[in-house]
Amino acid sequence: MGETLTIRDNRTGETYELPVSEGTLRAKDLFRIRDADGHGLVSFDPGMFNTATCHSSVAYIHGDKGILDYRGYPIEELAERCSYLEVAYLLVYGELPTGAQLDQWEYDINHHMFIPENVKKLIDAFPYDAHPMAKLMSAVSSLHAFYPESREADLHLSPHLQIRRLIAKMPTLAAFSYRHSAGLPFVYPRDDISYVENFMRMLFMMGERDYRPDPRLVHALEVLFVLHADHEQNCSTTTVRTVASSGNGPYTCVSAGIGALFGPLHGGANEAVLRMLREIGDVSHVPEFIRGVKTGGARLMGFGHRVYKNYDPRARIIKSTAHDVFEVTGVNPLLEIALELERIALEDEYFVTRRLYPNVDFYSGLIYEALGFEPEMFTALFAIPRTAGWLAQWMEGANDAEQKIVRPKQIYTGPARRHFVPIDQRG
Ligand code: ACO
């Protein structure tokens, strides 16, 4: 006999035996439990704290142990040994590429980095002070107009071409958004340098004949891209899958994911961390700031995670990458404040009992700033690598016969049914 859960409904005296598989109760089975009026039992889970919405083989997190794996490989090994494009291939296709597969994949991505000129004009049409994420979101959603065969999640319609196109174009779109904000001319991609180097060149090249960023900085950004490539069913990935559930193709879904990522509680957190560190201003103000957090005056941005109740493994790698970057760029003066915040928070009863540890965003902003990025670019730097994860999850959802259009329930709290009152009789 399989595993079951026996439930006795004290409202009706009925007993039910519900199947349990993979440690999970099917929400539909709960609906079999009816009250005296025949209403089925519904689970209430705002924020989907304890609701699995899909089967997925892309990423695995063990929040209590601080483990993150992509397709079974520990994030620490991938960050140390792989390029971002190698990891993107792994996420999309489920296996690390062979040498020949990687060569072909890199070639394909390199040859799709140009964007349609009209998308460039679209970016140009934004006000200069528009947030790069607003431009990125619009530019990505516009791509389905340029590649209309991608509109639907029909897997006969060249999803692999769309996947290559989007992974390839993200750095170009993000770099053009940035150069537009800075009032600088666009720099076009080259087909003979790596993905990350191309991105840095499109961002930072000025009058140099052959701009080449410091390879140690290219490596640091490569590591950050690997760490941000996927994180299973987080807010933006759930958004991608939700939009995909009505049959949408990759550009529409990823642009919705970019919107979700934009929020300060998700991808916008590292921008908020830097703002917070600047507001604190000096290491001597840290205890007072922590007191304010504990009395509910502010959140300690970059701390806490819905899933990790231990040190976020990505934060550990980022912290050591920060030291490598600072060897090249000089130490970011805000680092001292960040280290002191972490030191105090990790000992403080408020944070310890709530199991609040640094997350991926706590140190990433400091590195990005040292690399020369404006804070407004930070979330775009998250969106570029996360595109591989979003697309892997999009494709997994589109291939999953179990997936249905997303349509949750609600608990209605409005007025009971009432009848129309003509305007001259309303109080
Ligand atoms: N600072 C202070 N207190 C916090 C923090 C924080 N950063 N995070 C959580 N808490 C407290 C809450 O006030 C709450 O306390 P209470 O039980 O006394 O009410 C308790 O810890 C639980 O917090 P929730 O908000 O219920 O936890 P949830 O899982 O919903 O939120 C989240 C997770 C959004 C990440 C939260 O920890 C947070 O706001 N952190 C700061 C923003 C941030 O760094 N986001 C990046 C997340 S990583 C990523 O998206 C890439």
Write the layout of secondary structure elements.
Blueprint: E1 4-9, E2 14-21, E3 24-25, H1 27-30, E4 59-62, E5 67-70, E6 73-74, H2 75-81, H3 84-93, H4 99-110, H5 117-124, H6 132-146, H7 159-181, H8 195-204, H9 215-227, H10 235-244, H11 250-261, H12 269-280, H13 286-294, H14 313-329, H15 334-347, H16 349-353, H17 361-371, H18 378-398
The chain binds acetyl coenzyme *A.
Question: How would you portray this structure in words?
Answer:
Helix content is 50%, strand content 6%. The protein has two domains: 1-43, no CATH class; 57-402, Citrate Synthase, domain 1. A hairpin with a 4-residue loop joins strand 1 and strand 2 (14-21). The protein has a three-stranded antiparallel sheet with strand order 1-2-3. The protein has a three-stranded antiparallel sheet with strand order 4-5-6. It is built from 18 helices and six strands. It is globular, with a radius of gyration of 24 Å. The termini are far apart. By secondary structure, it is mainly alpha-helical. Helix 3 packs parallel to helix 18 (378-398), helix 9 (215-227) runs antiparallel to helix 14 and helix 11 crosses helix 18. The protein binds acetyl coenzyme *A. The site of acetyl coenzyme *A has 18 residues, from loops.
Q: In short, what is this structure?
A:
With 427 residues, this protein is mainly alpha-helical.
List keywords for this structure.
mainly alpha, 427 residues, 6 strands, Citrate Synthase, domain 1, 2 domains, 18 helices, binds acetyl coenzyme *A, globular, 3-stranded antiparallel beta sheet, 50% helix, 6% strand
